[in-house]
Amino acid sequence: xxxxxxxxxxxxxxxxxxxxxxxxxxxxxxxxxxxxxxxxxxxxxxxxxxxxxxxxxxxxxxxxxxxxxxxxxxxxxxxxxxxxxxxxxxxxxxxxxxxxxxxxxxxxxxxxxxxxxxxxxxxxxxxxxxxxxxxxxxxxxxxxxx
Length: 146
What we know:
Layout: H1 2-8, E1 15-17, H2 24-27, E2 34-36, H3 38-50, E3 55-61, E4 66-72, E5 96-103, E6 106-109, E7 121-126, H4 132-138
Parallel strand pairs: 1-2
Antiparallel strand pairs: 3-4, 4-7, 5-6, 5-7
């Protein structure tokens, strides 16, 4: 509440720490610029270690109903299901969307004609959590890579 008051009184940027999950809905889309939830940060950190493939970041969305995943594409066209293919050619599981591809310092908004290269960071949104294993398999390289 103090962050919202500070913003209304003229603060250019406000940051708030959310310890009560019930307040998350108040903050989303509101006046607060940055909201930090230790609970959500911890969940994301744990999910990063649990996921298979080269998963860099995982963020739980919609109170755990969906996930945003940052995965690194490795391999070549022979050993990977994503490298060397356009986003339109990738057989994404149902309920999964690629939002962007980060290549070095460049961010490419996902279009069907964007080709995924080895070393790219792919940002995915997974709405159907039953499909997470399928998403992880997409970013695992085959034995021919080694």
